[in-house]
C-alpha cells in the first residue's frame, strides 16, 4: 500500500525544515547570493524557467527532490509513457503522450501498438483540413465552407478554443471559427449569428457523444441547418464528429466516414492534441498543427530525460506541494503576458482542477492534506489594474506563474517592451516589495507609509519563451500537463478521473421532468422543490 504523503519521513523532514525557513525573506535570500537569479533558472527546449523568486533555499529544494524520489516520480513517468494503467479508478492508461509521439514510436496498450492508429487519424484529419481549406470539400449546395463551429464542452471545447485564440495570427483569415459549448440557448444564437448555413461546417466533439450540452446543441444546429437548406441529406456535408463512440455518432446521423476517432486512454482535458483539435487544424493547417505536436513532444522528451533538479514540470509541481502543504496556500495565479493567451487560465482550470481536485487517494483512502489549489488568472497587464492589489498587499499568499515572450507575434511599436517591462516589474515588486524605511527615504508622508508599504516575499515563477508559435503553445500545454501529473503522484491521487462532476449531471437529469411538470417535486429538499415551483409558475404565466 502506498504510504500517505504526510506519513513519509521525507515529508516530515520538509515540515521540520519549513519551521526554520518560513519567515526568511526573498530580499535576504537574494542579498546572500548575488547569483541566485541565474542559478535558480533552468533553460531547456528554448524556455527559461526562473524559479529564484520562490521562498526556497537549497535545502528546501534538496528535501523536495528527496520527496519526489521517495514517491518514485521518475518511475511513474516511465509508467505513463509505457501505457500502464495509471488511471486506476477507470482501469485505463492515460496516454496523451502517444498523441504526439513520432510515427516511429511504439506504445503497446492491451497488446496493440497505438501509434499507427494515432497517425492514421492525424493523416485523415490532415486530408480533411486541406480539402476544406482549399475548397474541394463543398457544402450541400456546392458552396465552399467558410465557417467552422466547434460544438463541445469541457475538454472538447476549452483546448481547441484556447489554442485557436492563442494562434489566431497563424489562422486562415478567410475562415470564421466559433465555439459553441453552453446549453444556454444564447450561446447557440451567438455562435450561429450571421452565418450562412450553406457555408457552415459543424464539428461535434464529444468523447462520449452523450454529453447533454453538446448533444442538445448538435441537435439544435442540425435543425438550424435543415431549416435553411431544406434537405436532410445536407447533414453529411455539414456535420463531422470527433468521438470515441461510433455507434452514437451513427445514431445521430453522421456517417462514420466523417468521424475522427480517439481512444478511451485520452482524458477529455488531455485531448486537445487529438482529433479534438480538428477545428484548430482547420484554422491553422496541418503543417502548423504538426509544429504544435512537436512542441508537446519536446517537453515529453524533457520530462523523461532531464534530471529531476533540472526538470521544469517537476520543479513547478514540487513548488505547488511546498506552498499548499506547508504554507497553507489555497490558490495559484497564472498570468500570461500575452493577450492571445487570454483563455489559457480557463483551460488550465479544467486541466488542473478536474485532475487534482480530489479528496481520496488512488486507493480510496481519505486524504488528510490539501490537494489541488484553485487556479485562476488573467492576462497582464490588464490584471494589474484589476486584482493585483490583493496579490501585493492582501492578507493571502498567492504564488504566481508569469508567462512571457521575448518577441511579439506581431510587432506594434514598442508595445512588447512595455508589456515585458511590466511582467518583470510585477515579479520583482511581489518578491521585494517596498519597506517603510524606503518610503520614508523617498519623503512619503508618515500617514501614508502603512498604506503604501508592500511587504514583498510573495513568490512567483517566470516562464520566458521566445515567441508564441504553435510549437511554443504545445510546449506550454505539455509543461502544465506534466506538472499536474507530478502533483498527483505526490498527493497519490488519480489525476485522470472526474467522478465529482457526475452527481450534478445525474440530479439535473432528475430535475428536468419536474421542471416540465411531468413529475412532482415531493422527492426534493424544500429549497430545490420551492425553486422548481417558482420556475414552473413563472413559465406557466
Ligand atoms: O463534465 C466533465 C466532462 O466529463 C469532462 O471531463 C469532459 O471533458 C467533458 O465533460 C465533455 O465530455 P465529452 O467529451 O464526453 O462530451
Written account of the structure:
The protein is of the alpha/beta class. The protein contains 22 helices and 13 strands. The protein has helices spanning 9-21, 26-32, 36-39, 58-70, 73-82, 115-134, 158-166, 185-192, 212-229, 235-238, 246-252, 278-284, 286-305, 312-327, 344-356, 388-393, 415-432, 436-441, 449-452, 470-491, 502-515, 526-540, and strands at residues 41-44, 47-50, 108-109, 112-113, 147-151, 176-180, 200-205, 239-243, 259-261, 331-336, 374-376, 400-405, 460-465. The chain has a six-stranded mixed beta sheet, with helices on both faces. Strands 6-5-7-8-9 form a five-stranded parallel beta sheet, sandwiched between helices. A two-stranded antiparallel ribbon has the order 3-4. Helix 7 (158-166) runs antiparallel to helix 15, helix 12 (278-284) packs across helix 13 (286-305) and helix 14 (312-327) crosses helix 20. The longest helix is centred in the last third of the chain and has 22 residues, at 470-491. The protein binds 6-O-phosphono-beta-D-fructofuranose.
Amino acid at each position: 500500500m502506498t504510504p500517505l504523503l504526510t506519513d513519509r519521513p521525507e515529508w516530515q523532514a520538509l515540515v521540520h525544515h519549513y519551521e526554520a525557513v518560513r519567515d526568511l525573506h526573498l530580499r535576504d535570500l537574494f542579498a546572500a547570493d548575488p547569483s541566485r537569479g541565474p542559478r535558480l533558472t533552468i533553460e531547456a527546449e528554448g524556455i527559461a524557467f526562473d524559479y529564484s523568486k520562490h521562498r526556497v533555499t537549497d535545502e528546501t529544494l534538496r528535501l523536495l527532490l528527496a520527496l519526489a524520489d521517495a514517491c518514485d516520480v521518475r518511475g511513474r513517468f516511465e509508467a505513463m509513457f509505457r501505457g500502464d494503467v495509471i488511471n486506476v479508478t477507470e482501469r485505463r492508461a492515460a496516454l496523451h503522450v502517444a498523441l504526439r509521439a513520432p510515427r516511429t514510436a511504439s506504445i503497446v496498450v492491451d497488446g496493440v501498438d497505438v501509434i499507427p492508429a494515432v497517425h492514421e487519424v492525424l493523416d485523415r484529419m490532415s486530408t480533411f483540413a486541406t480539402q476544406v481549406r482549399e475548397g474541394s470539400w463543398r457544402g450541400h449546395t456546392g458552396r465552399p465552407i467558410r465557417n467552422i463551429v466547434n460544438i463541445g464542452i469541457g475538454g472538447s471545447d476549452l483546448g481547441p478554443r484556447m489554442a485557436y485564440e492563442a494562434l489566431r495570427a497563424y489562422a486562415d483569415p478567410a475562415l470564421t471559427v466559433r465555439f459553441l459549448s453552453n446549453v444556454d440557448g444564447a450561446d447557440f444564437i451567438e455562435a450561429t449569428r450571421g452565418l450562412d448555413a450553406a457555408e457552415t461546417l459543424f464539428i461535434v466533439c464529444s468523447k462520449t457523444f452523450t454529453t447533454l450540452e453538446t448533444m442538445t446543441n448538435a441537435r439544435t444546429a442540425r435543425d438550424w441547418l435543415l431549416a435553411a437548406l431544406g434537405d436532410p441529406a445536407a447533414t453529411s456535408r455539414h456535420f463531422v464528429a470527433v468521438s470515441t463512440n461510433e455507434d452514437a455518432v451513427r445514431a445521430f446521423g453522421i456517417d462514420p466516414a466523417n468521424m475522427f476517432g480517439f481512444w478511451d486512454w485520452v482524458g477529455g482535458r488531455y485531448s486537445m492534441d487529438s482529433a479534438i483539435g480538428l477545428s484548430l487544424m482547420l484554422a491553422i493547417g496541418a503543417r502548423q498543427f504538426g509544429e504544435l505536436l512537436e512542441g508537446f513532444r519536446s517537453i515529453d522528451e524533457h520530462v523523461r530525460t532531464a534530471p529531476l533538479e533540472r526538470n521544469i514540470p517537476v520543479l513547478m509541481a514540487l513548488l505547488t506541494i511546498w506552498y499548499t502543504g506547508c504554507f497553507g496556500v489555497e490558490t495559484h495565479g497564472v498570468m500570461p503576458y500575452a493577450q492571445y493567451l487570454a483563455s489559457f487560465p480557463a483551460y488550465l482550470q479544467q486541466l488542473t482542477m478536474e485532475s487534482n481536485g480530489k479528496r481520496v487517494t488512488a486507493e480510496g483512502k481519505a486524504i488528510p492534506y490539501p490537494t489541488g489549489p484553485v487556479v485562476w488568472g488573467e492576462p497582464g497587464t490588464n490584471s494589474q489594474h484589476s486584482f493585483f492589489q490583493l496579490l501585493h498587499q492582501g492578507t493571502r499568499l498567492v504564488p504566481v506563474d508569469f508567462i512571457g515572450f521575448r518577441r511579439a507575434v506581431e510587432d506594434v511599436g514598442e508595445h512588447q517592451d512595455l508589456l515585458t517591462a511590466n511582467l518583470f516589474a510585477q515579479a520583482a515588486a511581489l518578491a521585494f516589495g517596498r519597506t517603510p524605511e524606503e518610503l520614508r527615504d523617498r519623503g512619503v508622508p508618515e500617514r501614508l507609509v502603512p498604506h503604501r508599504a508592500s511587504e514583498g516575499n510573495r513568490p512567483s515563477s517566470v516562464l520566458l519563451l521566445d515567441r508564441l508559435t504553435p510549437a511554443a503553445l504545445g510546449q506550454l500545454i505539455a509543461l502544465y500537463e506534466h506538472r499536474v501529473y507530478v502533483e498527483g503522484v505526490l498527493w497519490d491521487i488519480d489525476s485522470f478521473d472526474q467522478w465529482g462532476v457526475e452527481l450534478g449531471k445525474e440530479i439535473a437529469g432528475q430535475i428536468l421532468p419536474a421542471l416540465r411538470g411531468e413529475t412532482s417535486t415531493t422527492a426534493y429538499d424544500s429549497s430545490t422543490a420551492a425553486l422548481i415551483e417558482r420556475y414552473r409558475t413563472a413559465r406557466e404565466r
